[in-house]
Amino acid sequence: MVEHHSIHETCFIHENSYVDSPVVIGRGTRIWHFCHVMSNVRIGEQCVLGQNVFVQSTVRIGNHVHIQNNVSVYEGVTLEDHAFCGPSAVFTNVVNPRCEFPRKNEYQVTRVGRGATIGANATVVCGHTLGEHCFIAAGAVVTHDVPPFALVAGVPGRIVGWMSRYGRRLHFDSDGIARCNATGDVYRKSASGAVDLIESSPQGSCHEHASLACR
Ligand SMILES: CC(C)(COP(=O)(O)OP(=O)(O)OC[C@H]1O[C@@H](n2cnc3c(N)ncnc32)[C@H](O)[C@@H]1OP(=O)(O)O)[C@@H](O)C(=O)NCCC(=O)NCCS
């Protein structure tokens, strides 16, 4: 719960949006036209909520998160730092909704990890974790947990490849090593199939176009 209503003085909230009280909204966050942010929401610094974004009570949104037009972020969803939600991406919070049998106490948790991307019009069936820097292709339907750096596409969503933090496809050699061709960052795929960033080049950490701010 949020105890003190606090909207940083540097925030921009369009006059046609509603922000209920109490909420906490950090420095530099911009909320564009026709949004509704319910009470007890925390939104970090330097976030962008595009047109017609709805954020339901108790949702937590980290820093530098971008939510494109027409996205509803329902209770139970957490967006970590640098998460990106493409236009009209869909979250859910009840697996088996029935109008006759309300399930408000059965909301499932969905965690979107740091740096993850959800493509336009993708649907995330609730109760799953989207690992750090994973990439959900446009129109995919996520029905399982997604490992870090995985590229998931299709209906139902399947892992079809791997993406660097920067958003370039990773091609692993016979030693399980791949290099991002934009930043030079090095990744390793272990025997279990998990992918880790093992060497971060100075360019990869601080690339000015990567929107991965040095911290
Ligand atoms: C998934 C994605 C990153 C792939 O990009 P890419 O690596 O350049 O891939 P390509 O365009 O070369 O396509 C490779 C194959 O994947 C298929 N593919 C591409 N995007 C796909 C998608 N969203 N779902 C299913 N298949 C897809 C292509 O049809 C192609 O298949 P083919 O080889 O049989 O012809 C990209 O297509 C995508 O979905 N990006 C998200 C865009 C978005 O939502 N942006 C939101 C902000 S505007």
List key phrases describing it.
binds coenzyme A, mainly beta, 215 residues, globular, UDP N-Acetylglucosamine Acyltransferase, domain 1, 2 domains, single chain
What does this entry look like structurally?
By secondary structure, the protein is mainly β. It folds into two domains: 6-165, UDP N-Acetylglucosamine Acyltransferase, domain 1 (3 Solenoid); 166-215, no CATH class. It is 2% helix and 31% strand. It has one helix and 26 strands. It has one helix at 202-206; strands at residues 6-7, 12-13, 18-19, 23-25, 30-31, 36-37, 41-43, 48-49, 54-55, 60-61, 66-67, 72-73, 77-79, 84-85, 90-91, 110-112, 117-118, 123-124, 129-130, 135-136, 141-142, 150-153, 158-162, 177-179, 186-189, 195-199. The strands form five sheets. It has a nine-stranded mixed β-sheet, with no helix packed on it. Strand 25 and strand 26 (195-199) form a beta hairpin. The longest helix is centred in the last third of the chain and has 5 residues, at 202-206. 36% of the residues are buried. Residues 206-215 have low confidence and may be disordered. The structure holds coenzyme A (COA). Coenzyme A binds at residues 86, 119-120, 137-139, 153-154, 169.
